[in-house]
């Protein structure tokens, strides 16, 4: 497992900190564009920026007043308009002191020349004290990384050859940022003849020009198109479920900021009933110690109380906000009958007539169109017969586009065969249900128990998680998938039969990039599927929810 | 991986032809503004230097305090350090006052951005001072704790004759001295009495202690003052100051008749320092809360922007609704007047 100092978030934060510590004065102004703001905002709060000496943080395109004599740090995307804006700032003499300019990715030569010409004409070249490509062009969203390539699913499956080329170049340059922040030399594995393998090729070439020193770590790049079901599954673990039912956006679910906190770290990917139980235990513990503090008689106790109480209250506040989220989520879960869907989806691999008829029942029922589409699409990609799948989509209004999508993927995926159900997780976790519900009097728990009992421990490993595990542990997929190693003399030669064993084996860090969009549920599934010994760094060209991806498919 | 492109830039710009015309002169910044900002920056940087030196002294002090031993008598050293830190904190207070003044006087002539910038600096410094002061408090607490412990040890191994009665006396005086403390913790002082019934050589001189508490009081005053940045803060804190003064005068009064009761008076001093410390504790807590609340106002970078966008969207929605309402109103008016006209025509044609 990773220590807290080597998590992606910590590493990216330290990158940003070095960037902010380049001015010589203790106080400085930070100016960013929306792109870079989204890189900074999950990592540094306003007080975080303050403690690093940033007094003002302003948007590049806003109407800024002049602050003479203060050093200014520009952190903007390398685009023509941004460069022009910087030049116009200098010409209107907004900031009279030194200027530091940072770009999150490589500043192309033509833009460098534009900047040079502009500065030269203003006789201000020497005022620019720093000009750097930082290579940190991705954002952290909770535990995931987001390469911020909008519309990546469409771009990864369609378009002309030059468009595809452009897309892969973009993704590989951002991937380079990720690798340089993580300080790892990847051993890339991709499914054969896919968009990912093109990205892998480009990344290997980039790594030749920009060598990174660090440990060798397996990097799995995969196309969303090969595992289109990944984002649609109904989830049983906490964080993905929250995002699904409460329409989480960025780091906020509703109005609650969930980007940090002990509780989430511990319970983020536990199954929902566990979280409910954990929530009430933690809350009770807090209340007990609070009561103890309030009844303290000794003066020394009182002094302790004065010190401890704010901390305790803060913790309580956090846990209570999660209680609120849990309750809100429970309502929705009951409404949308998610436990039933999760249960059914976990039995899909058997593709028996009984399951098929159950699916038909649900599709005929009350549920929302979105849930039905998700269920039908996932089931459609399994081993059911075409006529059954068609009849399912017939039950959902306006679903021809999805039917087409599913049928197309079915024909590509000729090797669909009913895989044995993986019950390694299901069984023993299910046994715990009784203990969760037994003996706890709290109303919350009872209610939760009734509603979400069936959520417990369902799911198991899905196709993508299985493939990842197979690649990492030398299974069947390990032989199939391509192998790119920039350390080899000729990185473009792959799959020569006698590959070195590096990157395989049990445990360690593994980076997973989903081209076309990743999601919390898939991350949770891969993480739980691989087990504790693997430290999974997961992300996508963008982060999409099930709803987003439904529109991606047809849009 | 950070790749500097400065060299590329310089190589490129040096290849450009030298400027034939001088660049358009940028609008000069008013010299006064610049001067004010400079003064502000000098002040703030000296201030942050002072704060950091105080913090390092504090670290030393806490190191000394943590080395508890009955064999080493370091009370003099500790007292000296406490004095020094107190002075430093006072000094910081003064500098902050002048900084505040600079800012107030500059407010009229500077741009809003410059003002924001300066305010941000000031609030950061305030936060740092508060943290430092809180640490100071904690060190003092630890100190009194260790004094108590060593007192207990001495009691265990030393003589114990007739001390219980003295303890009672001290207890009563302690209550008398700090009524506030008593009201907040009814049982606290009386329970603590026994620990303190015995004086020992490690205890600092009473007078010394009192003066230190007074200064801690000042320190608390200072923080509140800064925080509010106004006259009010001073007024809020005056009662505490007065109380501290009262306590100290009472202390001297008590000292005079009790000449022989040396041990007792020092035990009393410990009681006092403790009560003041815990009083201060609540003040600090308030301060820390205030600072934190301030931070929470603008917790996330993108929040304001998103809120603004939401507000604009909401406003647009309201406008659309109003427009719709107006349209409906107009339609209604038209209909009614049509009906009226119909009636008039009806009356004219059939009844006239």
Automatic annotation (TrEMBL), chain A:
UniProt source species: Triparma laevis f. longispina
Gene3D superfamilies given in the database record: 1.25.40.60, 3.40.50.1910, 3.40.50.2060, Syntaxin Binding Protein 1, Chain A, domain 2
One GO BP annotation of this record: vesicle-mediated transport
Record-stated family: Belongs to the STXBP/unc-18/SEC1 family.
Alphabetical list of Pfam families matching this protein: Sec1 (PF00995)
Coiled coil: none
Source superkingdom: Eukaryota
Name of the protein in question: Uncharacterized protein
From TrEMBL, chain B:
Top-level taxon of origin: Eukaryota
Record region (Disordered): 1-29, 180-214
Coarse class of the protein's main subcellular location: membrane
Domain T-SNARE coiled-coil homology: 260-322
Biased composition (Pro residues): 20-29
Topology of the protein relative to the lipid bilayer: Single-pass type IV membrane protein
GO annotation (BP), single: endoplasmic reticulum to Golgi vesicle-mediated transport
Coiled coil: 75-102
Keywords for the protein's UniProt record, in alphabetical order: Coiled coil, Membrane, Transmembrane, Transmembrane helix, Transport
SMART domains in the record: t_SNARE
Location of this chain's protein in the cell: Membrane
Example of a GO MF term: SNAP receptor activity
GO cellular component terms given for this protein: Golgi membrane; SNARE complex
Transmembrane segments annotated in the record for this chain: 332-351
Family per similarity comment: Belongs to the syntaxin family.
Protein's name according to its UniProt entry: t-SNARE coiled-coil homology domain-containing protein
Organism of origin: Triparma laevis f. longispina
């Amino acid at each position: 497992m990773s220590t807290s100092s080597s998590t992606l978030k910590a590493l990216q934060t330290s990158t940003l900190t070095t960037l902010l510590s380049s001015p010589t004065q203790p106080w400085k102004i930070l100016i960013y564009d929306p792109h870079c703001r989204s890189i900074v905002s999950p990592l540094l709060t306003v007080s975080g920026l303050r403690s690093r000496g940033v007094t003002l943080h302003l948007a590049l395109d806003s109407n800024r007043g002049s602050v003479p004599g203060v050093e200014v740090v520009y952190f903007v995307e390398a685009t023509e308009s941004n460069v022009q804006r910087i030049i116009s700032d200098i010409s209107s003499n907004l900031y009279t002191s030194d200027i530091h300019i940072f770009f999150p990715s490589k500043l192309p030569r033509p833009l460098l020349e534009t900047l040079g010409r502009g500065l030269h004409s203003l006789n201000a070249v020497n005022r620019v004290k720093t000009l750097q490509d930082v290579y940190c062009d991705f954002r952290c969203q909770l535990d995931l990384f987001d390469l911020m390539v909008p519309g990546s699913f469409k771009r990864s499956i369609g378009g002309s050859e030059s468009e595809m080329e452009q897309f892969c170049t973009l993704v590989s340059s951002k991937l380079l940022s990720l690798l340089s922040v993580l300080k790892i030399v990847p051993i890339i594995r991709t499914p054969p003849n896919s968009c990912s393998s093109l990205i892998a090729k480009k990344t290997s070439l980039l790594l030749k020009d920009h060598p990174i020193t660090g440990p060798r770590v397996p990097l799995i790049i995969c196309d969303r198109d090969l595992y289109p079901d990944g984002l649609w599954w109904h989830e049983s673990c906490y964080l993905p479920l929250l995002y699904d039912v409460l329409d989480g956006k960025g780091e906020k679910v509703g109005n609650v900021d969930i980007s940090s906190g002990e509780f989430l770290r511990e319970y983020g990917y536990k199954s929902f009933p566990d979280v409910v139980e954990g929530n009430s235990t933690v809350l009770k513990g807090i209340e007990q110690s609070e009561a103890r503090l309030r009844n303290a008689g000794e003066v020394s106790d009182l002094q302790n109380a004065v010190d401890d109480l704010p901390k305790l209250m803060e913790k309580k506040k956090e846990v209570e906000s999660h209680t609120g989220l849990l309750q809100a989520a429970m309502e929705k879960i009951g409404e949308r009958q998610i436990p039933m869907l999760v249960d059914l989806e976990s039995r899909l691999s058997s593709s028996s007539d009984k399951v098929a008829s159950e699916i038909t029942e649900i599709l005929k029922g009350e549920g929302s169109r979105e849930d039905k589409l998700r269920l039908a699409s996932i089931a459609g990609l399994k081993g059911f017969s075409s006529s059954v799948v068609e009849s399912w989509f017939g039950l959902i209004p306006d679903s021809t586009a999805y039917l087409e999508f599913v049928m197309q993927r079915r024909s590509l995926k000729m090797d669909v065969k009913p895989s044995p159900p993986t019950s390694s997780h299901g069984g023993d976790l299910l046994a715990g249900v009784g203990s969760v519900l037994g003996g706890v009097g709290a109303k919350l728990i009872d209610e939760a128990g009734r509603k979400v009992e069936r959520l417990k421990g369902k799911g198991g490993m899905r196709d993508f998680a299985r493939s990842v595990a197979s690649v990492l542990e030398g299974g069947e997929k390990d032989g199939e998938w391509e192998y790119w190693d920039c350390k080899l003399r000729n990185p473009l030669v792959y799959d020569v039969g006698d590959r070195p064993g590096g990157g395989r084996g049990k445990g360690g860090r593994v980076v997973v990039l989903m081209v076309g969009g990743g999601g919390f549920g898939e991350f949770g599934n891969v993480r739980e599927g691989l087990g504790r010994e693997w430290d999974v760094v997961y992300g996508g060209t963008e982060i999409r929810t099930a709803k987003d991806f439904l529109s991606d498919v047809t849009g | 991986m950070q790749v500097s492109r400065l060299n590329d830039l310089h190589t490129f710009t040096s290849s450009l032809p030298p400027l034939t015309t001088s660049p358009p002169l940028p609008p000069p910044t008013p010299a006064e503004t610049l001067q004010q900002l400079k003064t502000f920056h000098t002040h703030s940087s000296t201030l942050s230097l002072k704060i950091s030196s105080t913090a390092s002294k504090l670290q030393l002090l806490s190191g000394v305090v943590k080395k508890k031993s009955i064999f080493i008598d370091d009370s003099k050293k500790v007292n000296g350090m406490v004095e020094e830190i107190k002075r430093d904190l006072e000094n910081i207070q003064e500098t902050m006052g002048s900084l505040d003044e600079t800012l107030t006087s500059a407010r009229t002539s500077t741009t809003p951005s410059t003002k924001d910038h300066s305010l941000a600096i000031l609030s950061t410094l305030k936060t740092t001072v508060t943290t430092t002061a809180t640490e100071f408090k904690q060190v003092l607490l630890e100190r009194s704790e260790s004094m108590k412990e060593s007192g207990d040890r001495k009691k265990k191994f030393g003589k114990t004759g007739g001390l219980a009665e003295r303890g009672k006396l001290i207890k009563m005086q302690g209550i008398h001295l700090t009524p506030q403390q008593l009201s907040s913790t009814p049982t606290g002082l009386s329970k603590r009495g026994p620990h303190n019934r015995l004086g020992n050589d490690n205890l600092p001189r009473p007078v010394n202690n009192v003066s230190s508490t007074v200064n801690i009081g000042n320190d608390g005053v200072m923080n509140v003052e800064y925080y509010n940045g106004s006259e009010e803060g001073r007024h809020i804190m005056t009662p505490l100051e007065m109380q501290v003064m009262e306590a100290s005068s009472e202390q001297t009064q008590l000292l005079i008749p009790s000449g022989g009761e040396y041990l007792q008076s020092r035990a009393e001093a410990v009681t006092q320092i403790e009560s003041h410390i815990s009083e201060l504790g609540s003040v600090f807590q308030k301060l820390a809360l205030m600072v934190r609340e301030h931070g929470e106002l603008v917790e996330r970078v993108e929040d304001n922007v998103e809120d603004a966008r939401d507000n604009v969207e909401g406003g647009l929605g309201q406008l659309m609704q109003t427009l719709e309402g107006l349209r409906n109103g107009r339609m209604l008016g038209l209909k009614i007047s049509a009906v009226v006209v119909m009636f008039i025509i009806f009356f004219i044609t059939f009844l006239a």
